[in-house]
């Protein structure tokens, strides 16, 4: 029922968004970007617009004529400069991003080679140690373009036109190691933006345009001032660089807890390897809570959707989310994927009435099993979930506790074995608790489930 409701909700939301977008595009005077004829018509009409000439013809005062002419020339110059700036930016972004592509175009003389990873050991093989592993490291603060240019001559303005000479010309600077004092290394100091959080001192990598890859070498005398978030270093020449940090520095988790705060409201706490993170979930909105304030002032205490929060945290350099590459760089408990995903879904269904927490026995029970703690009012127990050959999920209450000396799959005498996790939970709940779970909003359930699936606490803790 909840799955059907969330599917209908997402479909309706997307349809509403499409209708709003189409109305917006057709009611503000701009053409639909998907309609090439409308775009061409708009450009032609704009090019032939004589409104500025009408203003010049109607102007009687010479001062007004001069003012309109100057405004027209400034607008033309602005359009031209914006066009050059956008073109230059697109070319730079395309060049910097090309190392992520594996082109199979036979017309390319030197196709980009893909990165090779070892799935068993989780480390890169046959890879230069000075080459940055872009799966293990993530840039923070964007890409910095550092270069030296000749000062271009000022444009010459004549009657109705402007004469421009060549654009920016790069000032030549030695690319090798300096042999004398006339060409010393380039000293660079960068202060990170206020919206960036560093879990560790950042590393500096330079862009190798020839091999189209990020590299560690060529950077010397690196120093970092944590209080000012300022990093200083020297390069052999002017070149593009970026500040890197480990993508999964805060993993694996040291513990986690999902605690209810009331109907359709929970507190999700993750004890990371470096710092702890708490996320409050209410209905379909999330709010971040973190002791470290720098770089997160724009996120703290603000409600947003789960997807928006995840995107904002990654942009700020705070990562607790996993992907298909995480297991190559982080120790984890290998678990059966289908069992794990079903448990997350059932935890979300009962999140309003039950608290779930990390158990140390989860790492010792084997790949086919999952162990977690469940709290309800004053009840504290451990539960055991396994998958049988018929792909039905059986759950039972374990006899051991967190303080037991060794793991044992023995269940509590007299307890029943249930087909699903939630049926077992219902046997230990009051009618009021069961009623809370029955009235959980589907948007809340979907938000909790998505957050659990994005962090995978049963595997990466």
TrEMBL record:
Limits of the IC97/Casc1 N-terminal domain: 20-52
Organism superkingdom: Eukaryota
Pfam families: Casc1_N
InterPro entries noted in UniProt: IC97/Casc1_N, IC97/Dnai7-like
Gene Ontology MF, one: microtubule binding
GO cellular component, one term: axoneme
Family of the protein in this entry: Belongs to the DNAI7 family.
Classification via PANTHER family: DYNEIN AXONEMAL INTERMEDIATE CHAIN 7, LUNG ADENOMA SUSCEPTIBILITY 1-RELATED
Record's protein name: Dynein axonemal intermediate chain 7
Organism listed in the record: Cyprinodon variegatus
């Amino acid at each position: 029922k909840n799955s059907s409701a969330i599917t209908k909700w997402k479909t309706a939301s997307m349809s509403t968004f499409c209708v709003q977008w189409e109305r917006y595009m057709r009611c503000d005077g701009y053409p639909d970007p998907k309609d090439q004829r409308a775009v061409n018509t708009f450009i032609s009409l704009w090019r032939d617009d004589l409104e500025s000439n009408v203003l010049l013809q109607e102007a009687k005062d010479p001062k007004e004529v001069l003012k309109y002419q100057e405004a027209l020339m400034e607008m033309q110059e602005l359009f031209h400069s914006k066009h050059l700036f956008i073109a230059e930016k697109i070319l730079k972004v395309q060049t910097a991003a090309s190392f992520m592509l594996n082109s199979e175009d036979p017309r390319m003389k030197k196709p980009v080679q893909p990165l090779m990873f070892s799935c068993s050991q989780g480390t890169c093989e046959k890879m230069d140690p000075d080459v940055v592993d872009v799966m293990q490291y993530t840039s923070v603060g964007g890409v910095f373009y550092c270069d030296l240019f000749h000062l271009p001559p000022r444009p010459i303005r004549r009657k109705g036109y402007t004469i421009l000479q060549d654009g920016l010309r790069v000032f030549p600077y030695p690319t090798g190691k300096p042999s004398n004092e006339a060409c010393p290394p380039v000293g660079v100091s960068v202060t990170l933006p206020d919206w960036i959080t560093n879990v560790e001192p950042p590393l500096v990598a330079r862009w190798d345009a020839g091999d189209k890859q990020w590299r560690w070498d060529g950077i010397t005398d690196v120093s970092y001032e944590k209080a000012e978030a300022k990093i200083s270093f020297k390069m052999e020449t002017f070149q593009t660089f970026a500040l890197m940090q480990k993508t999964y520095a805060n993993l694996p988790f040291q513990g986690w807890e999902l605690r209810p705060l009331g109907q359709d409201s929970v507190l999700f706490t993750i004890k990371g390897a470096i710092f702890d993170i708490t996320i409050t979930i209410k209905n379909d909105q999330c709010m971040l809570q973190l002791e470290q304030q720098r770089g997160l002032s724009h996120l703290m205490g603000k409600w947003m959707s789960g997807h928006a929060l995840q995107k904002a945290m990654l942009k700020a350099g705070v990562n607790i989310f996993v992907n298909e590459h995480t297991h190559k760089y982080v120790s984890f408990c290998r678990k059966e994927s289908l069992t794990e995903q079903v448990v997350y879904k059932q935890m979300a269904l009962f999140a309003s009435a039950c608290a779930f927490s990390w158990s140390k026995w989860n790492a010792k029970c084997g790949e086919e099993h999952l162990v977690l703690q469940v709290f309800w009012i004053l009840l504290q127990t451990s539960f055991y979930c396994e998958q049988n050959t018929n792909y039905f999920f059986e759950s039972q209450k374990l006899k051991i506790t967190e303080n037991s000396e060794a793991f044992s799959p023995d269940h509590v005498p007299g307890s029943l074995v249930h087909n699903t996790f939630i049926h077992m939970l219902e046997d230990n709940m009051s009618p009021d608790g069961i009623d809370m779970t029955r009235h959980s909003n589907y948007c809340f359930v979907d938000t909790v489930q998505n957050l659990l699936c994005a962090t995978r606490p049963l595997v990466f803790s």
